[in-house]
Design a protein that fits this description.
single chain, about 210 residues, alpha/beta, Rossmann fold, 3-stranded parallel β-sheet, 5 strands, binds adenosine-5'-diphosphate, binds nicotinate mononucleotide
Length: about 210
Amino acid sequence: MPGSPQRPGSPQGSTPSALVTNGGKTTLTNRLVKALPNCCVVHQDDFFKPQDQIEVGEDGFKQWDVLDSLDMEAMVSTVRAWIENPVKFARSHGVNVTPGSREPSSQDTHILVIEGFLLYNYKPLIELFDLRYYLAVPYDECKRRRSYTVPDPPGLFDGHVWPMYLKHRKQMEDSGVDVVYLDGLKSRDELYNQVFEDIHNKLLNCS
Ligand SMILES: Nc1ncnc2c1ncn2[C@@H]1O[C@H](COP(=O)(O)OP(=O)(O)O)[C@@H](O)[C@H]1O
Ligand SMILES: O=C(O)c1ccc[n+]([C@@H]2O[C@H](COP(=O)([O-])O)[C@@H](O)[C@H]2O)c1
């Protein structure tokens, strides 16, 4: 399994979970964040630009599934704020650090889970990860699972969402970025156990 280990000498590890829309990223992330020590989370969905700044393509669809629809600079700044001071970041995001009476220390292991559908196509972000996971489900399952409170306009999935997913996946693979592929057809428990164990082995056992 590729993925880069914790940076030598660093008390921290950052760990994304990813990637196809409705693949189970949020479900997996929520479980990891509850289980891992000193763990914060950044959701890429929080960095979508406002509706009126999203371009309409030649295909007539709002172009949500491209990097331009996201404020990636703000996202990277948020991740950098965590890297600079994970204890401060955790406190300002309401995360309990080092349960017990001991004062939190910068030498404790801190983990940031970064969750999103377009994490590995933006170089300034890619470089910040210690471990990279890529959660994928096949076309039929993805289409079946995709349901939002405001439903997609007719044709959006086939006309924009899935083609952009394939395009970005190819771009990522061509760029040679190391990811651990996760089979999103596995059960929620299987996925959680696989990733939790991997993080434990790579980030926690070696600290
Ligand atoms: N391993 C799984 N097996 C089957 N369904 C799942 C699994 N993980 C998540 N789901 C369901 O798929 C849908 C999308 O999950 P979600 O975690 O919101 O995906 P994402 O954050 O990738 O868009 C939800 O209805 C969720 O309950
Ligand atoms: O339709 C919208 O208003 C809208 C606004 C923001 C995001 N989205 C969708 O959100 C998807 C990414 O989020 P996720 O959690 O499903 O991976 C992406 O496929 C977009 O099409 C859709």
